[in-house]
Amino acid sequence: xxxFSEKVVFADANEQFGRHLKAAIDIEAGDVLIEExxxxxxxxxxxxxxxxxxxxxxxxxxCKKCQFFPLCIDCTEHDxxxxxxxxxxxxxxxxxxLINTYALNSILKLxxxxxxxxxxxxxxxxxxxxxKLNEYRNTDMWQDHEVSIVQPIMDSGLMDCFRSIQKAxxxxxxxxxxxxxxxxxxxxxxxVSSKVTGDSLKGLxxxxxxxxxxxxxxxxxxxxxxxxxxxxxxxxxxxxxVIYNSFTNPLMGTxxxxxxxxxxxxxxCHCFRCLDPTELNTHMSSVKCKECPEGFAICSxxxxxxMDCNAVLDAASVQKLLIQASEDVGNANxxxxxxxxxxxxxxxxxxxxHFLMIDLKQNIATILRAVLINSMxxxxxxxxxxRVDLCEEILPVVxxxxxxxxxxxxxxxxxxxxxxxxxxxxxFRSKEIPKDLYIEKLQVAKEICLESKExxxxxxxxxxxxxxxxxxxxxxxxxxxxxxxxxxx
Length: 489
Description:
44% of the residues lie in helices and 11% in strands. The chain has 15 helices and 15 strands. The strands form 5 sheets. It has a 4-stranded antiparallel sheet, with no helix packed on it. It has a 4-stranded antiparallel sheet with strand order 12-13-14-15. Helix 9 (315-332) runs antiparallel to helix 10. The radius of gyration is 25 Å and the shape is globular.
């Protein structure tokens, strides 16, 4: 399935972008622009648990025909072309190649799509714009792929079995071609979730992958349980404007986002957020000035300067601080007290909205939710208040960097709602707040429900976000019921 709205048109490649989409007319937020089925859904490189070749669920048995690909209990067969290919190929190579090195699963799946005459044409335009293989050579990513992917395939002799690929790739060495395919997967993959287990998988979508990147995209992406993708306008888009997607985590700082884009897509982003040292006034990368009590330093062209007193910070010292803080966050390893201590420790070094501080706050809020859910006793008000405070600090940042129809903001709102509402109910029952204030809080909670549902209104009903909409609707019904009891008195 590949459907394009008449509101978008293809634009020819230029120095900045490859062939891309532009708005043909003014587009309203929520308008569907692209609907697309995946070319391929497969596992991540680091996945060790074998997955069914057909449905990607956990598997512990092999296909009886090809004896190469795993299948689950419910699937008795998989794609006919790949099964027949390896039925023949395993006469020349080991049947245990995939079992022994399951990291090969993704690239083997892609090679089969390219080898298959019925699907090979869809792969022709997947490489990043202005792609140059030598720019990737000898990077850390290249070395990782060399050890875990390229060398095992080269040693197996499998490449000789891909006859159509051998003709199409011309004089390129097999090892370079395999590296190119690894990069293709890394550069184009979208994260999708298994429809049964919820495990993270990656999907390749031919047209969605060609959309240019922007750290503040004007589109949002929805993927249903059958891995069908829908891309819709997150904000109003004027006629002639480029249609953008985002291929990095919006809650990272500029330096970190750009490093990620460089490593995965080999692009340099020059969007307005990346060019703004304050990151849209969120200060997600700002550090505390050491010369004045209230100032924060921002980085412009590699120079860290305080916005209040113009003091210049030593760039090497800032870098050392970032490295140490990142290591500390990683070493905390899910310990809520360690996260709280780090939040206190670095409060004098980073802006409260710094991406590392936001990361700490998210981690704490997540753990506290688990504590509240798993507690055998009544919810602890102090825990609820702490979680409410954390959510209130996180929400404005999320809204600023992902405006419009944002599922991340909608989910953050829902997480806030859970603790906000429960705390209000406990405070009212214990008579810590009067009836009027409780009613006011119920009305606020209802507004949160309405906003969350609106932000998720374009998500497929059979997606995780669609299921969340139904949970929010149930929550809203309960709030309405509580409000009606007061209205009747």
